[in-house]
């Protein structure tokens, strides 16, 4: 028989004969501690094998004469074991709670390979993954980042870290022999949390021994507190802090997982541990006055009746005011916490960093490219997770888990913090945030898990600009979840260059329905995505009036879906299909369905390799359209004959205006600046040689028209436009 006695430090065993009687009969009823002691003494069931696990500080509680062998379990000493663990963990279906079967094995293998490469670089994450529990955390984070597709997401980032701490410290008391009986997590929040917070405030991640001494206040400790500190340094310190592996910083400590610093700093603040000396003294005095007030009141009332000291009750009542005054003063703590959260969330120096989810991804998988030189000055440390964790810790579920860990946050405190924070957060969000910072703000609202607060915050957002943010499935789920708390219409949603696909559009479908202006340029959307867009435009609740799909390879098949959408849509007034590889066939499909549309006013088919036939066919249909009055056809393969036919169009006679060239007969087109602005914005994304050819043709047309006019004012206008085109050509040739 093998007995495994796990966590022996929780039992205060007494191996003295006077303290614990001898017992060799398994049938004899004795207390559990007596059974355990006699098993270890080998007096009870001497043939049995026994394995005892305990924290380092409690090893000597079992006398050495009863121990045959000591072993310290450190972690994964073999990186191949780490890799095997990651392969097994990341290939488990449903271990992230999603239960999806369509995860590609190629994506899983790619994640394992990138993670392995980062581990081989001997970064700080290599030290962290020495501990199997941190390997669990890394895998859970990767599942969260890459395989979350549910709306709302079934997990939060804060929830993962809180669950991780429960996994390791649930029910753990720092020292069972100490009368304070403080939970391990509470002690960590008070000490390591203080170190983490001061590091965040001073933008520091490396800590010297002096920093540790100062933060743990070693000089001010009593003997009992020093014993607790010794137990902490023996048992827990290395779990949270490890020696820095960065060259030149060998004698400093860093948090084993960088984000843990921000989590513990957030916990330190939300628990109200960040107090001034006056606040601490005031709290202690308030508690003392509160405890003795009732007894003293009785004595004073009796004495005042016997002796002529009528002023005593008055004085004492004045003293009783102090606890009430302090309780009112302590309410200001909630305002301070809310202010800290809002200030950190909207720090302007962080406005142009990557969003926090990309930062976490980089910290786990590394950044592709050459390693920085050790002598290079590192960039400033970024602590954008700190306010997000503060919001996440205040959510109901995380507060319930922290309660189990001995870190109590009352419902009233959470309510007061949210109330104090609301005005500041909403006011600052209205000023307009850069895309990456706006994504962080949306993620903060998701982590906060307060639907009423989120609804008020989102209702103030009329324009949502997330251009150039890499919208992973998780970010799409977060955006859809947060926006679903209200039903208000969004004036503009900008998702330009966000790596969207058909799945992303499906996730965001309820949000897209409510957007008046929708920007989906530069997303490599194909015909599959067009199918989703067709369903969107044909939905009876769709309010999209301006849709931009430029610079996506939609092709003829995509044009078919969009043509069907145009036929049945009742909200769209402007549609941009600039540079979408339609070709003549795609334009013909659009033209076939245009007569069934009654609302479109502007259509952009520029840079789609259209020839005369397709361009004139679209214009002929546009002439008969009730409201369509502007068609963009520039940068297409239109001949001189086609150009003359399009030049002959008159708005007053034909009811449509075609934007084809920079000239209009012997004058400059009214839309020359618009056309050049479109070209200017898209130069980095278009084929350089082909654009250069089109610009050369535009320049020739300008020069030819200038020679045909004798009007000096018109010549000056031509020269101005020619100079703009020449500048663009020069930039193209220089490759800038």
Automatic annotation (TrEMBL):
Domain NACHT positions: 1-86
Source domain of life: Eukaryota
InterPro entries: Leu-rich_rpt, LRR_dom_sf, NACHT_NTPase, NLR, NLRX1_C
Protein name: NLR family member X1
Species, as recorded: Acanthisitta chloris (rifleman)
Lineage, opening ranks: Eukaryota, Metazoa, Chordata, Craniata, Vertebrata
Gene3D superfamilies: Ribonuclease Inhibitor
Residue span(s) of domain NLR family member X1 C-terminal: 668-729
Gene Ontology MF terms: ATP binding
Keywords recorded for this protein, A-Z: ATP-binding, Leucine-rich repeat, Nucleotide-binding, Repeat
């Amino acid at each position: 028989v093998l007995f495994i006695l796990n966590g022996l430090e929780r039992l205060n065993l007494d191996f003295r004969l006077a303290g614990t009687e001898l017992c060799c009969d398994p049938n004899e009823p004795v207390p559990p501690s007596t059974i355990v002691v006699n098993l270890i003494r080998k007096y009870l069931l001497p043939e049995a094998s026994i394995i005892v696990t305990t924290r380092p500080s409690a090893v000597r509680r079992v006398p050495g004469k009863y121990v045959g062998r000591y072993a310290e379990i450190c972690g994964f000493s073999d990186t191949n074991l780490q890799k095997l663990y990651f392969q097994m963990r990341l290939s488990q279906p449903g271990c992230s709670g999603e239960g999806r079967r369509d995860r590609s094995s190629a994506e899983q293998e790619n994640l394992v390979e990138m993670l392995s490469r980062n581990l081989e670089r001997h970064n700080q994450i290599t030290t962290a993954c020495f501990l199997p529990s941190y390997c669990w955390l890394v895998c859970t984070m990767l599942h969260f980042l890459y395989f979350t597709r549910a709306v709302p997401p079934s997990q939060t980032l804060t929830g993962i870290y809180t669950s991780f701490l429960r996994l390791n410290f649930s029910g753990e008391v720092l020292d069972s022999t100490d009368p304070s009986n403080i939970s391990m997590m509470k002690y960590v929040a008070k000490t390591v949390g203080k170190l983490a917070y001061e590091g965040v405030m001073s933008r520091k991640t490396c800590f010297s021994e002096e920093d540790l001494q100062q933060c743990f206040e070693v000089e001010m400790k009593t003997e009992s507190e020093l014993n607790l500190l010794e137990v902490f340094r023996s048992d827990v310190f290395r779990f949270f802090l490890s020696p820095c592996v960065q060259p030149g910083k060998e004698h400093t400590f860093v948090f084993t997982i960088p984000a843990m610093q921000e989590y513990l700093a957030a916990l330190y603040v939300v628990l109200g541990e960040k107090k001034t000396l006056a606040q601490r003294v005031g709290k202690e005095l308030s508690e003392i006055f509160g405890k003795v007030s009732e007894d003293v009141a009785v004595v004073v009332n009796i004495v005042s009746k016997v002796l002529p000291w009528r002023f005593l009750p008055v004085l004492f009542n004045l003293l009783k005011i102090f606890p009430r005054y302090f309780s009112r003063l302590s309410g200001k703590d909630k305002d301070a916490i809310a202010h800290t959260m809002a200030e950190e969330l909207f720090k302007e120096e962080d406005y142009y960093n990557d969003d926090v989810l990309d930062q976490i991804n980089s910290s786990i998988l590394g950044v592709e490219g050459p390693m920085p030189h050790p002598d290079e000055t590192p960039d400033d440390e970024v602590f954008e997770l700190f306010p997000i964790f503060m919001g996440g810790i205040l959510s109901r579920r995380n507060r319930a888990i922290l309660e189990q860990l001995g870190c109590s946050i009352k419902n009233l405190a959470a309510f007061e913090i949210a109330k104090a924070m609301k005005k500041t957060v909403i006011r600052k969000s209205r000023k307009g945030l850069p895309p990456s910072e706006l994504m962080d703000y949306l993620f903060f609202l998701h982590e906060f898990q307060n639907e009423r607060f989120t609804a008020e915050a989102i209702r103030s957002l009329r324009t949502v600009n997330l251009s150039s943010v890499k919208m992973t499935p998780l970010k799409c789920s977060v955006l859809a979840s947060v926006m679903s708390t209200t039903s208000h219409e969004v004036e503009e949603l900008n998702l330009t260059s966000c790596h969207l696909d058909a799945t992303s559009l499906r996730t965001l479908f309820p949000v897209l329905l409510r957007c008046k202006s929708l920007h989906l340029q530069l997303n490599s959307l194909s015909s599959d995505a067009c199918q989703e867009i067709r369903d969107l435009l044909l939905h009876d609740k769709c309010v999209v009036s301006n849709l931009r799909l430029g610079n996506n390879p939609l092709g003829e098949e995509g044009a078919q879906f969009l043509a069907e959408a145009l036929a049945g849509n009742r909200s769209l007034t402007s549609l941009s299909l600039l540079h979408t590889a339609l070709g003549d066939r795609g334009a013909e499909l659009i033209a076939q369905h245009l007569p069934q549309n009654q609302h479109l006013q502007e259509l952009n088919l520029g840079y789609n390799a259209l020839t005369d036939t397709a361009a004139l066919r679209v214009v002929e249909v546009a002439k008969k359209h009730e409201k369509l009055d502007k068609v963009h056809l520039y940068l297409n393969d239109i001949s001189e004959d086609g150009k003359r036919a399009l030049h002959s169009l008159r708005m007053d006679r034909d009811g449509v205006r075609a934007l084809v060239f920079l000239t209009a007969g012997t004058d400059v087109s009214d839309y020359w600046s618009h056309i050049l602005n479109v070209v200017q914005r898209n130069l980095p994304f278009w084929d350089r040689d082909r654009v250069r050819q089109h610009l050369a043709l535009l320049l020739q047309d300008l020069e030819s028209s200038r020679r045909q006019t004798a009007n000096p004012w018109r010549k000056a206008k031509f020269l101005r436009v020619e100079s703009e085109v020449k500048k663009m050509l020069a930039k193209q040739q220089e490759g800038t």
